[in-house]
Design a protein that fits this description.
The protein is built from 1 helix and 2 strands; from the N terminus they run H-E-E. By secondary structure, the protein is low in regular secondary structure.
Length: 220
């Protein structure tokens, strides 16, 4: 199926296009709300500025895709391959990315408020200036990720792996950091007011035994 055929079918009311191969296609700027591209081969596809609210990309290969400023509100990307994908400025509020692979992807300025990223792989992922208020990231792999200026107030990072991550001015106020591993993280001016650091491994390797209610910025 080519782009023209897909757009015609979508306009006619079809929403399910599972397993389709559209690698390097240009779908930028279109309204494709609710489309189901699960199991699709979408390597390098241009979705810049596309409305993909409520879309499904389960197990889809989106490696290297351009999703800059795309609307992915409520989208389902479980087990999707987003390695080196560019999601700069995208809207991911309420999206589901469990077990997705976001290694080396760019999520700078992304709003993923309330999104679920449990067990996602985010090695060396760029989350600079992103907003993930109330997001769920249990067990997420954030090794070497850049969380500079990220707003993760009230997020759940229980048992997350944040070794060697960059946390400069990151706001973790009220976050659940139980059992999180921050060993050798670059941790400067991190806000942890009312965060729960029980059994978290701090950047210097110390084990936090209790929560730190009302604590201020922590430098390590």
């Amino acid at each position: 199926m080519n782009v023209a055929d897909l757009l015609i079918a979508y306009e006619a009311g079809r929403r399910t296009f599972t397993g389709v191969n559209l690698s390097f296609a240009d779908l930028g700027g279109h309204d494709l709300r609710g489309i189901d591209l699960s199991d699709g081969i979408l390597v390098g596809v241009n979705f810049q500025g596309t409305n993909l609210g409520g879309a499904k990309f389960c197990r889809a290969n989106l490696s290297g895709a351009n999703l800059r400023h795309a609307n992915l509100t409520g989208a389902v990307l479980e087990q999707a391959d987003l390695v080196r994908a560019d999601l700069t400025g995208a809207r991911l509020g309420g999206a589901r990315l469990m077990e997705a692979d976001l290694a080396a992807a760019c999520l700078q300025g992304v709003d993923f408020t309330g999104a679920v990223l449990n067990q996602a792989r985010c090695h060396s992922t760029n989350f600079r200036e992103s907003v993930g208020i109330g997001a769920t990231l249990q067990g997420v792999q954030l090794v070497g990720a850049d969380l500079t200026g990220a707003d993760l107030r009230g997020a759940n990072l229980c048992q997350s792996h944040c070794q060697a991550a960059r946390l400069l001015g990151t706001d973790l106020s009220g976050a659940n950091l139980q059992g999180a591993n921050f060993y050798q993280a670059h941790w400067v001016d991190v806000l942890v007011d009312w965060a729960d650091l029980t059994d978290a491994i701090l950047p210097d390797g110390d084990l936090a035994r209790v929560a730190h209610p009302g604590s201020n910025a922590v430098d390590r």
